[in-house]
Amino acid sequence: MRSLTQLTYLLRETGLGLRRGGWMNWAAISTVAVLLFLFGISLQSSWQLEGLLNRFGSQLEVSVYLETGVQAQDLQPLVARLPQVAGVTAVTKEVAWASLVQDLGLADIQGATQQLEGNPLVDQLQVKATASAAVPQLAAKLKQLSGVDEVQYVDEAVQRVGELNRGLSWVSFVIVSFLTLTAIAVITTTMRLIVLARRREIEVMQLVGATTRWIYLPFLLQGVTFGLAGAAIAWTLLLLLQQFLRQLLSQQPQFVQLLTNGLQLSSLQIVLLACILVTFGSSVGILGSLFAVRKIAVK
Asked: What domains, with CATH codes, occur in the chain?
């Protein structure tokens, strides 16, 4: 009964403080929601880019594009004898063109070929290396072969995606840091106004022997409420955004869908993202409340 009475008191005082806050409550909640929404987008993008990097990193294939007029079958035996090569697949320009047209969603291959005045592609070799560490050396040897126009492998894509991930991380860190300070300032101002509005009640409670913990604990719970409400709004917006992007990508060509399938978050990551938003939002709310209560307590 004693625990129930204490819990009832805390909930009643927390609700009373929220009613005293008025529209300032919405200012605090909306600021936290914007902060957590941008933070969630940043964290989700970081996870997706890391997944893309891991996906690319597991590939050991080197694409060798030949010069115009050079047949892939002529170079295939020579490439297969290289020590770092585990396998070679020859892809003629006709097969590559048919695959590209299909990926673009075009049904008339002859019509597309006539519009471009012929097949614009060249023969290519898909060379699989024995190990990922051997890919750069193998690519250098392939570039020196006669008839080879260009050599591409995933290390270039991995490097660019990694640079993009690092750039986004720094930008996100600056934005999230600024919004975190803004959210704490708004919550501190809101809680300070609530504490001032209930100053006489607090003085009476101090006179009758109430401890500092029981006086200021409801204000801390109000800060937690701001954080939880902001996290709920941010989580809802993130789910709606994911659903919108999923529907948008479902209308794209097949090769785009194959690339984006590796960017989907797992169930564990989705649950972890929700927990991080709740923890971050609650921490911001508690910090803002502590600053407000500390300033009033010092006075």
From this structure: 2-57+158-298 (no CATH), 61-130 (3.30.70.3040)
Beta strands in 92-153 (DSSP E): 124-129, 148-153
Over residues 136-187, the pLDDT tens digits come to 788 888 888 888 888 887 666 666 666 777 787 888 888 888 888 888 888 8
Question: What digits encode the pLDDT tens for the residues 9-42?
Answer: 677 777 776 777 677 788 888 989 999 999 988 8
pLDDT tens digits, 95-111: 877 776 666 655 555 55
Q: How many beta carbons lie within 10 A of that of residue 286, not counting itself?
A: 18
Residues 55 and 147 sit within 8 Å (Cβ to Cβ): no
Q: Are 191 and 289 in contact (CB under 8 A)?
A: yes
In degrees and rounded to multiples of 5, residue 139 shows phi and psi of: -65, -40
Enclosing H/E stretch for 90: strand 85-91
Which pTM value belongs to this model? 0.61
Between CA 53 and CA 63 the distance in angstroms is 18
Using CB atoms within 10 Å of the CB of residue 298, give its burial: 0 to 12 exposed, 13 to 18 middle, 19+ buried.
exposed
